[in-house]
Amino acid sequence: MPELPEVQTVVSDLKSKILQQKIINVQVLFSKIFVLEPAQIINQTIIDVLRRGKYILIKLSNGYLVVHLRMTGRFFVASKKSSKIILTPEQQKHLHVLIELQDYLLLFQDQRKFGRMHFYQNLAWLESKLGPEPLSPDFTISYLSQICKSNRQIKALLLDQSKIAGLGNIYVDEVLWQVGVHPNTPACNIVFTKLKIMHTAIQNILQQAIAMQGTTFLSYAFDGAQKGKFLTYLKVFNRAKLPCFRCGTTIIKIKVVQRGTHLCPACQPLDPLDFRKKISLNTGRAKQVKKN
DNA sequence: TACTGTGTTAATAC
DNA sequence: AGTATTAACACAGT
Hints:
Helices cover 27% and strands 22% of the residues. It is built from eight helices and eleven strands. The structure holds a DNA duplex (14 and 14 nucleotides).
């Protein structure tokens, strides 16, 4: 759910509130989410709040508290009225970690409990698994064309965090609609001129979404319950059965890499050659269908 | 009841 | 080595 623009929004929100705050205490209500020892962060001061891919990095003097929201994680910064901690029902909902700061309570809520918090002394582990930031100078057109020398479907490639860090299901659908590329297209079949357009589209769409504080589709929120405004600007995602904004053709929803995928069949045609290639790649292996 | 969902990873197979 | 598929995590909404 939270992709780069949503995580950036959370980071900006946290940064405006908890900078220079010292961590006084930590209460863990669901330990699976909190993969570190409270002692590693207690008494440390928050020096900075940063983002890398979809990770939130809370920089402390001795290392980083690294948080991934996964599907439904969210932060809630509550001000501390007194030394006594009283939470509203809204704040207590799906509450799993409570970090007490000098002037605030930093609450981590997660309906599905997929979110994770780690502690690292440096960012080596993160850097080893993440590709470049799509909004940084590292993300060049030549880099994009290099990773696209692959038979993989373009949607799978764009979702791969080790190739580009931060894109998720919503923005990949948006980018591919913008560029007019079918998500099943083998990446190596996309011509260079299209890759250049895709490169620009990735940056533009992410920047616009950040400006709108992200997309609230199901559960994403920042600052407890504030919603992103990019939902109304989406061109294809969540628009199945509605007319394409460009040509009027009905938007369809299919499965690609096991993910719900929205596209305009007219603007994003799949080359018959691509289709044949895909069939030959799938060596006819029987699908194993799990029936409970 | 059964299926879906903005994410990631490990295991397995080819 | 590179690619594809599946299950798992866990819960709420339809």
